[in-house]
Amino acid sequence: MHVLHLIDAMEGGNAKQLHWLATRGAGEHHVVSMAPVGKKTRREWAERGIPVYEARKRFAYDPFLTTRLLLLAGKIRPERVHVWGVDGLREGLFCARFCGAQTVATLRHADPWKTFSSGPFAKYDFLVANNAGVRRFYESRSCVGNWSVIPDAVPEDFPQREENGGVTVACVGPMRPWKRWKWAIWSIDSIVRLYPDAKLLFFGERDGPTEVFARQYERAEIVSFTGSEANVRALLPQCRMLWCPQSVPGAGLAMLEAMAAGVPVVATQTDGIHDLLPENAGWFVPVEGETIAMAAAAHHILTHPEEVREKTALARAYVREHFTPEKMVAQYMALFTSQKSSVRPATRES
Length: 350
Fold this sequence. Notes:
The protein is an alpha/beta fold and 350 residues long. The chain contains twelve helices and 13 strands. Helix 3 packs across helix 4 (89-99) and helix 9 crosses helix 11 (305-322).
């Protein structure tokens, strides 16, 4: 079976999940990136027998993008076209119709600030969400279709949290101009008054408005950014906790990786986030009044080590049971080899 994967970029959570699927799944996999691909990335994937093509948009409006994709699809002749994210849904449909292939779209986060059209969803043979909250988010926006839930994969050998005595709080990026990132800075402002060595580490690119806001609160020296090339696998175990204010790209996977590493997770009760964290395996805060709640949850974590050990052990066991690469790949391969009228692969609703 030939599978053509259309992905937004060869970095981040989508690329991590695609890597598991393409390297462990049966068939021949080809990857088309809508963003530029570095030589190192292209070489690493080629060494695993997976060709990576670049079909980036050269301008804000690229009238030749679809033509390039169709020429590439005609060369590969895929039997399945798999789109990761909402940005390539229309292009994926064009490629599939050109080759007579079945279509699969995977949506992995519920970003309420992302604008998209619900029209293409119903035209896909299969729609996949990585948790029930993400599925609810899209269905509530009239994105109807043949939905399945296939959880993400997390490596079983994820490094464990280090007891280094510091108070580094990780917060999931990327940044956006909304209040929830300000709430993280407001919360660390409260924490640093009790724990002077506390620091806030954003997983994501440097963000000007966030840095300006931190300087306004005279907290710029304790707020830092990892950048897109950061080794999260190495950094996350050094953190005392992870804050997840919003379901943005990378948030759900960062939560799972933190749970696998034994890092306490504080999450908001929003679609795409709270579905991943069992009630007894983490700390939830309401969307309203989140600033006080996040600071209070962080203080509770720092002052109740025995409870932290119990909850992080439950979270680690939960991830190892439900979010394995073997299960994820098996469910996708069952989807790829089925027909639209066939029985869906096993799903987990929470």
